[in-house]
Amino acid sequence: MFQRPTKPAFPARTILLIAALAIALVYLLWNAQQAPSAAQSDEKTEQDEAEKESAEKTDGGLWPAEWFYAVREYPHFSPDVDAYSLGLETARLQENAARSRGGWPGFTAPWTVQGPGNIGARINTIAVHPVNRDIMYIGYSGGGIWKTTDGAATWLPIFDKQNFLSVGDITLDPKNPEIVYAGTGDPNISAYPFIGDGIWKSINGGQTWQHLGLTEARIITKVIVDPSNSNIIYAATMGLPFERTPNRGLYKTTDGGRNWQKVLFVSEDAGVIDLVMSPENHNVLYAAVWDRIRNNKESLVSGNNARIWKTTDGGTTWKKMEGGLPQDAKSRIGLTIDPQNGQRVMASYAGADLTFNAIYETLDGGTTWKKNAAVGLDPYFQGGFAWYFGKIRINPYNAKDIWILGVNTFRSVDGGQSWAFAVGSNNDVHVDHHDITFTDPNAFLLATDGGLYQSTDDGQNWNKIEQIPTTQFYRVAYNPFKSDVYYGGAQDNGTVVGNSFGKNDWTPVFGGDGFQAVFHPTDPKIQYFEFQNGSIFCSVDAGQNFLNGTEGIDDADRKHWDMQYIMSHHNSDIMYTGTYRAYRSFGHPAVWQPISPDLTDGIVFAPRFHTISTLDESVFDPNLLYIGTTDGNVWRGNPGNQNWEKISTTLPNRYVSAVKASLNEPDRVFAAHTGYRDNDSTPRLHRSDDRGATWKPIVGDLPNLAINDLQLIPGHQDSLIFAATDGGVYATLDGGKHWERLGFGIPVVPVYDLDLNPSQKTLIAGSHARSIFSFPLDSLRLGADVSVFDPNAIRIPGLMVRPTIASREIGIQVTNLNSSQTAEVVICDLQGKVVWSDTFRAFQRELQPVDISAFPAGIYVAFARVGSRNLGYRKFVVTGE
């Protein structure tokens, strides 16, 4: 292997020109060995600090988005929350550490929030400063806590340093409204992974936060601070929804949150969903209990534990309310208490059939209850998923003014004798309402699945008052004819289009739960959009009109909620999709024909667990298609002769989130899976160089987070890979040995989809909590040399030497060689004498070891060239023994 030519391959004078620089380098390198650098010290300090600190009813009444989340847990039906928590913490700490050390070149560039801010997302809770009404807080189901101090003119995120950004309740201390309590987790329990890690407290209006515990309770539904003693706090919790656990019920602290005592526990499958306190006697509380378990094998939404409990001694003893209340199985219960009369309590019930059941009222502190006649109240105002709502409120300024929330909201202005439609889609207000706050007798704030709305004229008119980029995206897309805008399919908000220049002016282009958009590469008139359950539509006139795009697909086929479809790289008149079997179409609008048998395991658990989840076509071979399924299968198929071969025998038996054919090597393919368990060493990302015959893991040092999508780049021999995870976007420059969190500006939130905008040279990331981001790919540097990223270019080969200080061995690699290239590498001392040389080829894609133990101590220079092209030099120091 080793060659020692007698004649130097490079002119000695070239080497001597850098001798002076090399001597200076020796000094710096030796000093670097003796003491840690300031950057290293800063990194440790920062890391130590961080360580301190729509309404379609499906599947028995489950909220539609649950289907999407549920199947991604296959086949481990009870997710390991400890592993998930550790993964999120790792992601956050890695970002903090990267800020101080710099990371790989270009990885410190910021993400740009493209938007939208005007589309919105689900807000669970509202809190308003009791004195200064311009100060408001809102908590999102996945997007954290946002605050305004100027009456909603501007909003800022104040909770982004936390690992869990799902917020169920925000409460201000009645004695000091600068003290803010945040209960994490989503009380609506409609989707995984929107759990939390307990209660957080801020003493300065949200500038900094302190954790108060109750991590294992996972979903905090209500926090009440005793108005007469701020050290007494009650926390209602639903517990971990995936399994039966004793960590649920009502907790109380008498020392400001240092210690908590469970004061009400009903069942391991039921928690406290709502809580109210008497305005006159703060030892009197009413708690509503809800039976709720949600995993892939079970969805318990109602039961015989659905009852109201009362305490008169601050939680020491409890009495179950009867006196006219239902005693059979019910679903979610909501409570409200008259702020002027603690004897008057109202409760809304969802029935076991998951529709609205009734309103009950007591005027004697719960001794007797009377069912409200509900005159004028539409019994279907909560759809077939009444468990998703459960909020009833009495206006504190007017006890006769009562509101009950649902898909649309109804109101009584005569104390409950009659009801009428109050607000909803008829007012151009987004449907699905989750909280309402009264800022004066005739001014209201309403939290919806589409953002925050305000009325200042007693509900006659409503305006959306937040422009916050928190939309939850499933898919993103690139339109080659509108390369300056971004497309995304969003949960409950359709498909929308826009960019950062009009962040608050994004335009809806299609409805439903938005999913994949596909654009013809040469004909701007041909566009495809999709909503849930594989409902594809085609426009042949640039979006003016839409035609059915599923002709030929059997309606009875099992379909993924997010059914993927693609347009062929080789013939734009051909498209592919999959239900439980693969389909191919010809022409536009698409007319489909099946081209495979059932590619899933059949129906083992339930239909939704056995569908096609992802597919991709080779850019080299029009007869090479890869398909992945929700039940862990990966297939290689030939659309021409319709031969299919299963290639996942050695892969994890988990939901396949992405299969991607290499853009650089004809026989290479990548497969990613979601799903993870603590102490499970099975990698979740694999590469095959022989079309799936064999696989090798390339998960490297990725944190324990689900991988949702991959994005490959042409021209880099697949050294550069992007991965969308439940904790942001990661990237590798060495084919998967080492990964770093990409860029800054995306909090620790799930990113479900990636795409490439080659015209703008940006990576597009669709987050499921904070809208769409773009990353400037020109900022990336591949190898040690400075080179601007170009997604359409063939990379110039480069030379890498690691480490730069060594005594026995170094590693040398020539990057970005194509299969026809070889590189000559020599090592010279400072006198120009060649002490080592070798030839490198494209298949050597890792650092090759070089024995330097016989080299005298000193400075050495490695040179490389391909043909007549010089690749530059790299200096290193041999320290000797």
Provide a concise account of the structure shown:
This protein is mainly β. The protein contains 5 helices and 66 strands.
Helix content: under 10%
Task: Give a count of the beta strands, DSSP E runs of length 2 or more.
Answer: 66
Determine the number of helices (DSSP H or I, runs of at least 4 residues).
5
CATH topology of one domain, anyone?
Answer: Methylamine Dehydrogenase, Chain H
CATH superfamily of one domain: YVTN repeat-like/Quinoprotein amine dehydrogenase
The whole-angstrom Rg is 30 Å
Mean pLDDT score: 87
Shape descriptor: globular
- Spatial ordering of strands, largest sheet: 60-66-65-62-63
Distance N terminus to C terminus? 25 Å
What proportion strand?
35-45%
Task: Give an account of the 3D structure.
The protein is mostly beta strands. It contains five helices and 66 strands. Among the domains are: 107 residues, Immunoglobulin-like, CATH 2.60.40.1930; 307 residues, Methylamine Dehydrogenase, Chain H. α3 runs antiparallel to α5. The radius of gyration is 30 Å and the shape is globular. The protein starts with 11 loop residues before the first helix and ends with a strand.
